[in-house]
Structures are given as structure tokens and as C-alpha cells.
Amino acid sequence: MAERIAISVTVSGLSRLFGGDLARVVELARVADAAGIAQLALPDHLAIGPRTDRYPYGHFPYPNHEPWLEPLVTLGALASATRRIRLATGVLIAGLRPALLLAKTLASLDVLSRGRLDLGVGIGWQAEEFAGAGVPFARRAARLDDTLRACRALWSAAPASFDSTTARFEELWSLPHPVQTGGIPVWFGVALGPRNVRRIAELGVGWMPIGAGPAEIAGGVRILREALRAAGRDPAELRVRAPAPAARGADGGVDLEATLDRLDELRHAGATHAGFALDRFVRDASAIEPFLARLGTYAQE
């Protein structure tokens, strides 16, 4: 039998699932770790502005008052509560953080988790969020590239030097380095235009398609594998985390078994991970543990 697609769970919808006790995400991580889930991901927003109508992927699914735990701080807590599960951002708006601080924080997380960190990044879409952080919204994609290249320089040399239009330093020791060989794996949550294909081929190991079906994923995988090959890299190292296609039951709720039956479509399209947004699949906190247990059982069938 073919190997199952890996299961990734995004911790979303905190207010509905946990109310005012957001520290319960630590226990959730313990349960996911014990269940055999492959990856646990946290989304990122430093703040939400009033213009959520500008969200580029359809209707923004959360109210302005929804809480967003800072993902890197939270992953540090989850690292201490787990032993096996990979810990991810999905996605971190990396360009909002100074490169030197981001490199140090991520390297520290990788060390403390003993090499279990996956860095999922995005370009960002809220002008107000960038303004609040004191970061220019213009050329934010180029800023993301500079930030990741600067991190890679700091992770691979000591002393390290780097010079770009948005980040520069000379002969700095930033230790410890990440424990993962080659540095922390970078996944991109982007649409696959030519520039983003080049970004992944140069800087990434993974792609996180947004709102894409199996046919679109398969086409993107072909493009990315060819881009990796052209860059002198092994196309087999590509990782793809695609949203699990939620099937609806007669009551209008998600039919988890029917959803699981669809995951082979993602695997055949080239996806290596199926992503489950927690609040999309469970109605309240009492359903979280059996939901995670079923995903873990599926992964081991």
C-alpha cells in the first residue's frame, strides 16, 4: 500500500475553541504529538486592521477582535511540551521582523525543539499591519527575500556578513546556529507566478498553495520540480502542504471520513502534507481530542 500523506494541523479559531484560556494550546500540542500528527502549524498576524475586505483570498474568515498568539513565542512553549511532532509557522509574515532578531529567534527555536522547526512564510497583505510595525509596505516581497537571505547567512557562517537594500551587517557572530543540516526548511505560502517559483527554487523546500484544487496543485508541482532541477537541486526534496478538501455531511457540518477519503487525490497531485485548519473541522474544544486521534489513526493505517 502507498504511504499515507502526512497530516498537518493549523491551530486556528482560538476564541471559539478556547475562549479566554488560550494557554490550552499547549495541551493541544501534547495531544497532537501523542496522536502521531506530523506537523502543527501556527498562523501569524501582529495586528488586524479595519480593511479585511482587502484580503486577497476571498472572505477573511475571522472578526477583527479574534486573538492571534505570536507564533514564535508560542512554538517555544509547544517545543517544551512535545517530543516528535514538527512545529511550523503557516504563514509567518517574516518581513515584519528585523532579520537579525528573526534569525536568532528561529535558530533558538530549532535548537530547543531539537531540529523540529519548519518556517512557513508569506509576503503579507495588510498595509496597516506594516505601517504599525514601522515597515514599508512597498517592495515587501523583496524585503522578504532579503530577510530570508540574511537569515541564511547568519545560520551558515560565524562571523557573517550580508548587504542588501533592506538588511545589512558585517562580521557578526549570531550563535547558536540551527541544528538542522542546511538550516531551517522554508515553505512559501504564495501563488505560483514566475517570481514566486524563483523564490522557492532559490530559498525554499516547500510550497503551501492557497485555495488550489488537485489539478492546480499537480501543475504547480510540475513547475516547481523543473525549477528545482534547473537550479541544480533535487526535485524530490520538494514539500507541498495543501488544504484538506472538506466534505460536507447532510447536517451541513464537515464529514471527516469523507474528507479523509479525498486525501489520496492530493497525494496523487504531488502534495506531501494535507493541512487541516482546526476550527474548520471541530465545533468546540470537546471535539479536538477525538479529531486529532482520528487523524493520527488515519496516518498510521
What characteristics describe this protein?
301 residues, alpha/beta, TIM Barrel, eight-stranded parallel beta barrel, two-stranded antiparallel sheet, 10 strands
- Which value, in Å, is the CA radius of gyration? 19 Å
Task: Outline the biggest β-sheet.
Answer: 8 strands, parallel, barrel
SSE sequence, one letter per element = EHHEHEHEHHEEEHEHEHHEHH
Helix proportion of residues, in percent?
40-55%
* Number of DSSP E strands: 10
Oligomer: single chain
Beta-strand content: 5-15%
Arithmetic mean of pLDDT = 96
Written description of the protein model:
The protein is of the alpha/beta class and 301 residues long. It has a single domain (6-135, 184-300), classed as Luciferase-like domain (TIM Barrel). Helix content is 40%, strand content 14%. The chain contains twelve helices and ten strands. It has helices at 14-18, 25-35, 71-81, 99-112, 127-132, 140-156, 194-203, 214-230, 256-261, 263-269, 278-281, 288-300, and strands at 6-10, 39-42, 86-89, 117-121, 160-163, 168-172, 186-188, 206-207, 239-243, 273-277. The strands form two sheets. The chain has an eight-stranded parallel beta barrel with strand order 1-2-3-4-7-8-9-10, surrounded by five helices. Strand 3 (86-89), helix 4 and strand 4 form a beta-alpha-beta unit. Helix 2 packs across helix 3, helix 3 (71-81) packs parallel to helix 4 (99-112) and helix 4 crosses helix 6. The radius of gyration is 19 Å and the shape is globular. The termini are close together. The relative contact order is 0.16. The mean pLDDT is 96.
